[in-house]
Amino acid sequence: MKPRDRLRIAMQKSGRLTEPALDLLNRCGLSFRQSRDKLFCFGEGEPVDLLLVRDDDIPGLIAQGVCDLGIVGRNVLNEFKGGAGDGAATLTEWRPLGFGRCRLSIAVPQEMPYGEPKDLHGLRIATSYPGLLAAWLREQGVDATILTLAGSVEIAPKLGTADVICDLVQSGGTLVANQLRETAVLLQSEAVLAGPEALPTDERGDMIELLLKRLEGVIQVRE
Ligand code: PRP
Ligand code: ZN
Ligand code: MG
To answer: Which stretches make up the ATP phosphoribosyltransferase catalytic domain (predicted)?
Structure first.
């Protein structure tokens, strides 16, 4: 990796975290040349640029050193950290950011009886978070089959490809629309600032410290 003198932050290109993340960075005094359809946004004042990518790619980009920091859901970060990918163990959550709150939950068909995690024994569970789900099932002592899907997890029970799902719930609207009900919460999530455990020793490290200080001020005012 070539040394860089500008800080690079990865964030979601288009999705629920995009607007609040940009808004938060603006409040921290960072502004970017408008090029929202592009992958790269050049920072105007401070030496901080943005990389707009798929949220699932953010932890990997940080682990590879392509980006210094990322704004990403704790769910995505922890799924990556639980995996065996290069540099996964060195990623850390620098700060929760107070937006994009949701939870990773088990949801079952409305008519299906459910009393406790053990009731999932022997079932097929569709999810985009196989690592987090596997860890939880292990903790609960439940033996179930995990079906990994990139998206549209909520229609799996109707299609008959899975019995229940493990997916993100925010308003609960998606579950209601698919006649599912939430039965167990695996993880409380929100957008977080993610980065390597060790700060870069050059100016980027100073910039990160400055950004963390500004975030502290901005987030405290809001809460
Ligand atoms: C998440 C999740 C659910 C939905 C839940 O998907 O996978 O589908 O949000 O939100 P709700 O409880 O407010 O209905 P998202 O829209 O983020 O997109 P994705 O599945 O394509 O990642
Ligand atoms: Zn995603
Ligand atoms: Mg979805």
So the answer is: 54-216
